[in-house]
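Hey,
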Amino acid sequence: MAKFHSTADPYIVSRVRALESLLMEKGLLEPGMVDAVVARFENDTGPMLGARLVARAWLDPEFKRQLVTDATPCLEAFGLNGYDLLVILENTPDVHNLVVCTLCSCYPWQVLGLPPTWYKSPPYRSRAVLEPRALLAEMGLIVPEAKEIRVWDSSAELRYMVLPERPAGTAGWSEEQLAALITRDPLIGVALVPTPAGAGPA
């Protein structure tokens, strides 16, 4: 659905820029600091950290078992210490998981980067709970009627990340190759990891 993938509200963007300029004028903020923080969450940590966790889980059954049981040691192995809020939800042939925050916009920034604008929108937050199958269809993901959809409500105390199913055609791929396939949306549950072009068996 187009409105969930729209860019940020121009009015909000202009207010943020005005506030940033004011803080710089008062010497409270250095030029480029905000952009550096944004770049860190978009590139250096999540969503690449989330992608690397998933890729490792696809290749290492013991790592996957630990990840879905208690993600903390797995996060520590990737350099994220002291973060014990995250629960990993595994998609299966029978179950598709979807993450939402109905109260505000609680979201695992450390592993997924900055939350998309639509994640914070009232239509997404309400419809994810009331009609998740229809919502996902409008966002381009058709979940078969036979597959159960489980909706998970994030909070300040508990955050979620989806472990998507591994796509066909990736047999023999390295962890780096697999991670490059994974974007943020499958880790929220609003998309699947795409099957590579010309893919053979899984």
